[in-house]
Structures are given as structure tokens and as C-alpha cells.
Write a structure and sequence with these properties.
By secondary structure, the chain is an alpha/beta fold. The protein has a domain at 18-138 and 186-247 and 418-495: Rossmann fold, CATH 3.40.50.1820. Helices cover 39% and strands 13% of the residues. It has helices at residues 2-6, 33-36, 51-56, 117-121, 144-150, 160-180, 183-186, 191-204, 217-228, 248-270, 285-293, 310-320, 327-338, 343-353, 360-370, 377-390, 442-452, 472-484; strands spanning 60-67, 77-85, 93-98, 122-128, 210-215, 233-239, 301-303, 306-308, 430-434, 455-460, 492-495. The strands form two sheets. The protein has a nine-stranded mixed beta sheet with strand order 1-2-4-3-5-6-9-10-11, with helices on both faces. The protein is globular and about 60 Å long. Residues 1-27 have low confidence and may be disordered.
């Protein structure tokens, strides 16, 4: 669907999770002993993704072996790439992390803790989940050249011929996924598979219980781990949380609302300046935005020796709403657009199109495995209309009573069921939610905390995720919980000083 193509779903975690259950006993599951008892051999990160960055902060890398199919323990195995920022002080244990996505590159995530007390007391572990980055096998559907070509493929023609062409492209993409990855592995890249991998990694590292920090989709992974292995958890922080009970289509529409709200916050801030490219009346900002961006569908503008088209402009816009840190560059890019240039916006689109943040093929494989599948064109169009009404910043002016079925509608492996939501035996956990989070709206974090019985830290701001980024009123209670297991006596609420 065009909304999903044009918008970076990368950190949202809008997925259903696969069915499955793990043992709640503290020992290894039957038949998994050889995986749980393996030795992790740490060494150089040369040859791993982002190896130079990891080396610069003194990190080490290794691989952990897991079964591809946990129902066939003597079958094929996968190698999960892990990184370690070793504890610099008295060590509590290991802390496994996940940056979201699904498909967020994980080996560099420990870097965000490098100057914190958490890194003094824990070996902070980054993980490229199965199918991603330096882990093998890897999910591969598109070549870099094919990714680049997709950035100019608008799919805005809603005539019968246009819909047929878009669906033909989707079938071709699915065929490439099957050819380059295989249906067997595509059937085993779901959240439950990754949750089981994390339990194997925990045991292989020598930790009796898991300490975990997950953001965005990482909260969906965390709640899945909590449902599978509640008694094997020591501490768990889930930031930018996703309601574990939500159907993913509900999440997608909530996400649209979140991005519209974040845009309105950006526009109000921009309007304080007389030279704001959206004008000084925030009420007119969405209309002014669409007046700048939608013409790019027919008439791209120069961007250095290239051209800025609609898809790249929309990508730059939406990704810039993840944090106020990106707002100045967005203003610069929109100002250039009023002058008929796209240099800054295409540079922003380039940045977020790179695999430095999210690997799109794995993301697609997980979303299509776990999303509710829309197989009726009229239903797809109705959802499209609801999203456009809720978030007019996403309206390209090409709505219709029909819409093409997306890739997930014809995905070559069966859809997964939801995981269980029984958290009996789970120790106290901690959730963090931001009131103006565009990608995982605040209520999802509230519902996640309620489901897990977590204490909730509410941060009043407009950004995606709030822990570990230098906000003292969030980081201090998070650190005390992780290190000392000191749980806040009540829910907390704070804003930046």
C-alpha cells in the first residue's frame, strides 16, 4: 500500500507476533541444550556491519548459533551476529538490546550507552536479529539498484491498468524474495523466532536471567519474550511501546495520527519564524506542505546532479518528524523546495534509505509474516481513505474507491498468529512512553505498561523514544532500575528541563 511504501515504518513495530510457547522453567528447553551451552568467542568486529564504528569504541563481535526452525532442532542453523561493549566496572551481567524496526540494525546500539553508568555495570549486547546485517542466512529480496529504482516508482495511478501494473510489480518482488531467500527461511523470521534466539543468546553469555532494553518494535519483541519466558527475566525496559493486544492495522492508523500530530508540532514551532516555508499560520501548514510536495509527482526539481521526486520528499518529511533534532534540516529543505531545489531533502532521503538504520527486506518479511493481510481492494482503499482523512500530510491527491493489494497480500508463507499475552511470573518491568511520539503513539505505551504490569515513565515531548538519549528525568530512574532493580514506587511524568 502506498502509505506503507512512502512512510518509514522502520521503528514502528506494527506487527502481529507468531504463535508459540516456551518453557517457563529456568532450565533449557528440551533438546536445546547444545545451543544454550555453546561458548561465545569474542573477537574483532572486522568484517561485521559497521565494524569500524564498533572498533572505535572498543567493542567486540561474535556469532551465536541457533536453529532456523525451533521445531526441527537437528535441521539447519543460523548464525546470529552479536556485539559487546564490555562492562568497565563491577559487572552485574549482560544487557541485550534491540533498536526496533523490525529490521533495525542492532550491532551499533550499545554505542548509545557508552558514556553511561549502564555501560559501567553491564556488558551491553547488540544483536543483528536473524536475517539481518551480519547474521546468516540473510533475507534478501532486492539489490541496491532495485531499491534505488523503487524510490521513483510512485504507484499513484489508480485506474484499472495502474492497479494491475502495481500488483504485477508486487508479484515480481515476491518472486525475487523466494528466489533469493527461500520460503523455508522466510517462514522463520518472525518475532517469536527472534525471542527464542534472545533466550539462547542469554544462556550462551552465561546469564541466568535476561536484562533487556528494547525500543519501538523492540517493545513488541520484549513483550513476546515476557510471554514466553517470564521467569527468565531479570529486568526489562520497553521504550516507545506498542500495545501487544492491538491488531496491526489499528496500529497503522494510530501511527498516521501520530505523524500528523508531530507535523503540527513542527509546523507550530516553524511558524514562530517569519521566514518559515510553511508560513506563520500553523492552521494552513498542512495545505502549504501538500502544495509544495504534491507537484513533485509530475515535476521533480533539481537536487545537485539528480532530481528530487515525490517519494524522496515524503520520506525526508516523515523521517524528519521522528525527533526535533531533525527539524532544522527539514525547514532548510522545505525552504529550498520553495525555491525549486531539493538538495537537502534528497540528502535526508538518502540517509534514511541506507541500510544504516533499517534493512527493508527483513522489515518487509516480518511485517508480511505478522501483519493482518488485506486481500480485498475495496477494503485496502477504505483504509487508505481513513489514513488520508486522519493524516492529511500523507494525502498525495490520488485517493480512489479501489487500491492495489500490497506485497503482504500475496506473501508466499502463511500468516502467523498472535503470541500469548499471559505474563504470569514476570518480575517488575519498566515502560517509557512519549506523549508526542509519532511512530508509536503514547496510548500504545500506556496499554503496554498496563498489560505487563509495568511502572510507566511518561515523557512530555515530541520524539520517538526517550530513554538513553540524555533526558535526565527518564535516564535516572531507568538506570537505577537496570542496575539496582529499584522500581519507581509510582508512575512518573516529566519534561525536558
Amino acid at each position: 500500500m502506498r502509505f506503507r511504501v512512502g512512510m518509514r515504518v522502520a521503528v514502528a513495530g506494527l506487527v502481529l507476533v507468531a504463535a508459540g510457547c516456551g518453557s517457563s522453567e529456568d532450565g533449557p528447553d528440551a533438546g536445546l541444550e547444545k545451543f544454550y551451552s555453546q561458548n561465545v568467542t569474542w573477537g574483532s568486529c572486522e568484517g561485521f556491519s559497521s565494524g569500524q564504528i564498533l572498533a572505535e569504541v572498543g567493542m567486540q563481535c561474535a556469532k551465536v548459533t541457533v536453529p532456523v526452525d525451533y521445531s526441527k532442532l537437528d535441521g539447519d542453523t543460523a548464525q546470529i551476529a552479536v556485539s559487546r561493549l564490555a562492562a568497565s566496572g563491577a559487572k552485574v551481567g549482560s544487557m541485550l538490546t534491540n533498536p526496533g524496526g523490525p529490521g533495525g540494525v542492532g550491532l551499533t546500539m550499545p554505542v548509545m550507552f557508552a558514556k553511561s553508568e549502564v555501560a559501567q555495570r553491564f556488558d551491553v549486547i547488540g544483536v543483528d536479529v536473524r536475517g539481518l546485517g551480519s547474521s546468516t542466512p540473510k533475507v534478501v529480496c532486492r539489490t541496491p539498484e532495485e531499491f534505488t529504482a523503487e524510490r521513483t516508482d510512485l504507484d499513484t495511478d489508480m485506474s484499472p491498468a495502474g492497479i494491475a501494473q502495481t500488483e504485477k510489480e508486487h508479484r515480481e518482488l515476491v518472486a525475487k524474495c523466494v528466489e533469493r531467500t527461500g520460503t523455508e527461511f522466510l517462514s522463520h523470521v518472525g518475532t517469536v523466532d527472534v525471542a527464542r534466539d534472545f533466550d539462547v543468546i542469554r544462556a550462551a553469555l552465561g546469564d541466568e536471567k535476561l536484562t533487556y532494553f528494547g525500543v519501538s518494535y523492540g517493545s513488541r519483541l520484549g513483550s513476546t519474550i515476557a510471554s514466553l519466558y517470564p521467569e527468565r527475566i531479570r529486568a526489562m525496559v520497553l521504550d516507545g511501546g506498542v500495545d501487544p493486544a492491538n491488531d496491526s492495522m489499528v496500529d497503522l492508523e494510530l501511527m498516521a495520527t501520530g505523524f500528523q500530530t508531530a507535523f503540527e508540532a513542527y509546523a507550530a514551532d516553524c511558524a514562530k519564524a517569519a521566514d518559515c516555508p510553511l508560513g506563520t499560520d500553523p492552521a494552513q501548514s498542512t495545505a502549504r506542505l501538500r502544495g509544495l510536495v504534491n507537484p513533485l509527482i509530475e515535476r521533480p526539481v533539481p537536487a545537485g546532479d539528480r532530481q528530487l521526486g515525490f517519494m524522496d520528499a515524503q520520506s525526508a518529511l516523515l523521517n524528519s518528524l521522528y525527533s526535533p533534532l531533525y527539524w532544522p534540516d527539514l525547514t532548510k529543505g522545505l525552504t529550498e523546495l520553495t525555491q525549486g531545489r531539493g538538495d537537502t531533502l534528497i540528502a535526508t532521503a538518502d540517509l534514511f534509505a541506507s541500510s544504516e538504520f533499517v534493512e527493508r527486506d527483513l522489515q518487509m518479511a516480518v511485517l508480511c509474516r505478522e501483519d493482518a493481510r488485506v486481500t480485498d481492494r475495496a477494503e485496502a482503499a477504505a483504509q487508505d481513505r481513513r489514513i488520508r482523512a486522519t493524516a492529511p500530510i500523507l494525502d498525495d491527491g490520488h485517493g480512489s474507491d479501489q487500491a492495489p493489494l500490497d506485497v503482504c497480500a500475496i506473501w508466499p508463507v502463511p500468516a502467523a498468529d498472535k503470541a500469548g499475552q499471559d505474563y504470569t511470573g514476570l518480575p517488575p518491568t519498566l515502560a517509557v512512553a512519549t506523549t508526542g511520539d509519532p511512530a508509536t503513539p503514547y496510548q500504545g505505551g500506556v496499554n503496554l505498561a498496563r498489560a505487563l504490569g509495568s511502572k510507566l515513565i511518561t515523557y512530555e515531548g515530541v520524539q520517538h523514544g526517550a530513554a538513553g538519549v540524555g533526558i535526565a528525568c527518564v535516564d535516572e530512574p531507568v538506570t537505577r532500575y537496570l542496575v539496582d532493580l529499584t522500581v519507581p514506587q509510582e508512575d512518573l511524568r516529566c519534561a525536558a528541563a
